[in-house]
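FAQ

Q: What does a record look like?
A: Structure on top, sequence underneath. For example:
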């Protein structure tokens, strides 16, 4: 493996990997991200940046559910939310993230 390949692979992990790739305009495989895709992404992110937030705790819970559902079983994630003092999973979250299983 070349050094360049190692650098690309090392940047595909972690929460900031996608943001770093977008900032560079280069996908993980080394290909340029088309300008139309970057422009649309930046337009939507600018809209999001101007949205009023409902609170840090709400945002934290949303992120935990959205990302946690990819890695943690439904019952376990639900218990972890409760144990941490967050609201348990909502029926619509279970349906969306776990397919209603």
């Amino acid at each position: 493996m070349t050094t360049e390949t190692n650098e690309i692979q090392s940047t595909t992990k972690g929460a900031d990997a996608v943001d770093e790739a977008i900032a560079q305009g280069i996908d993980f495989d080394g290909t340029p991200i088309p300008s139309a895709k970057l422009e649309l992404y930046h337009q939507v992110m600018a809209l999001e940046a101007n949205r009023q937030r409902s609170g840090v705790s709400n945002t934290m819970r949303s992120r935990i559910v959205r990302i946690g559902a990819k890695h943690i079983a439904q019952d376990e994630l639900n218990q972890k939310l409760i144990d941490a003092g967050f609201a348990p999973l909502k029926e619509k979250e279970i349906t969306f993230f776990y397919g209603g299983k």
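Q: Is there anything notable about this one?
A: Confidence is low (pLDDT under 50) at residues 1-9.
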